[in-house]
Amino acid sequence: AKRSMRKARRTGISRLAIGMSAGLALYSGGVKAEEIKLYNLAVGASVGSALVVNLVNARQAGLDFGWDDGKERARLLLNWSLPVERTYGPLQVTTGLELALGSSTYKDEEQPMANLTPLFDWSLPAGPGHAVLETGLGAAYLSSTSLGPDQYSTYWHFSQILGVGYVYQNWQLGWRYQHISNGSIEKPNNGQNFHGLVLKYHY
């Protein structure tokens, strides 16, 4: 009984941590240095609370931070299970549908975006946790057809994801590469190539 209580307490603290981190990230992302608005804090606190209680019944929730040739990006990640799983000896494959919401910035420009991607997680036991390779092909929507010196021509784009990470207990930390472009359907098609860190919590 005591062990169950300690596990429940750790789970509650972990959920609180990811919720507060996501809320803080959203709050700080919407605040200008010279102007602090209460509605930014309200939005951040509300989103953080929703993640703590897992209001949307997600399998995973997290944040990613990426960089691409002077551009910076921060996003909220939500992942729901898909009914496809495979096991090949010690190697396990699970699938999920990831929704990513956030924005990219270049100097004083901002570009909100959304990304929907079916992800494949290839996991292998390693030490006290397991190593993960994630791959995905999906769709991205950019709110503008340019950011800084780059021109994208269209709002809708293809998206490819390749990442590696390590999962310990309920936490996953990793690195991710994401390419976004319209596949040269229209030109110019500079595309985006973000590299960055990913932090996820597994409910």
Q: Could you please describe the fold and organization of this structure?
A:
- The protein is an alpha+beta fold and 203 residues long.
- The protein has helices at 2-29, 38-52; strands at 60-68, 71-88, 91-106, 109-126, 129-142, 146-147, 150-151, 156-168, 171-181, 192-202.
- An 8-stranded antiparallel beta barrel has the order 1-2-3-4-5-8-9-10. A two-stranded antiparallel ribbon has the order 6-7.
- α1 (2-29) packs antiparallel against α2.
- The longest helix has 28 residues, at 2-29.
- It starts with a helix and ends with a strand.
- Residues 29-35 have low confidence and may be disordered.
List keywords for this structure.
203 residues, alpha+beta, globular
Short description:
21% of the residues lie in helices and 56% in strands. The protein is an alpha+beta fold. Helix 1 (2-29) runs antiparallel to helix 2.
Sheet-strand content, in percent, reads over 45%
Task: Let me know the number of strands.
Answer: 10
Largest sheet: 8 strands, antiparallel, barrel
List unreliable stretches of 5+ residues. 29-35
Instruction: Tell me, rounded to a whole number, the average pLDDT.
Output: 86
First-last Cα distance: 21 Å
Class computed from helices, strands and strand pairing:
alpha+beta
**What is the percent of helical residues?**
10-25%
| Global outline | globular
Total count of helical runs of at least 4 residues: 2
Radius of gyration: 18 Å
Biggest β-sheet: strands ordered side by side in the sheet: 1-2-3-4-5-8-9-10
Order of helices and strands: HHEEEEEEEEEE
